Amino acid sequence: MDLIRIIFAVILPPLGVFLQVGLGKHFWINIILTLLGYIPGIVHAVWIIAKK
């Protein structure tokens, strides 16, 4: 299941974070990072998914 979340995280980082933690603070942080730059959003999303 983590592989699917990582694939979603690369395509659309907030979706990968949402599937992992829901609408928590990490989701909103990832939205901001993705808007500021796509790569920081991907890095944050993969980190959140790999951490759990």
UniProtKB/TrEMBL annotation:
One of its GO terms (cellular component) is membrane. InterPro entries: PMP3 (IPR000612). It comes from the Bacteria. Belongs to the UPF0057 (PMP3) family. This is Uncharacterized membrane protein YqaE, homolog of Blt101, UPF0057 family. PANTHER family: HYDROPHOBIC PROTEIN RCI2 LOW TEMPERATURE AND SALT RESPONSIVE PROTEIN LTI6 -RELATED (PTHR21659), UPF0057 MEMBRANE PROTEIN ZK632.10-RELATED (PTHR21659:SF42). Signal peptide: none annotated. It comes from Pseudobacteriovorax antillogorgiicola. Keywords: Membrane, Transmembrane, Transmembrane helix. It is found in: Membrane.
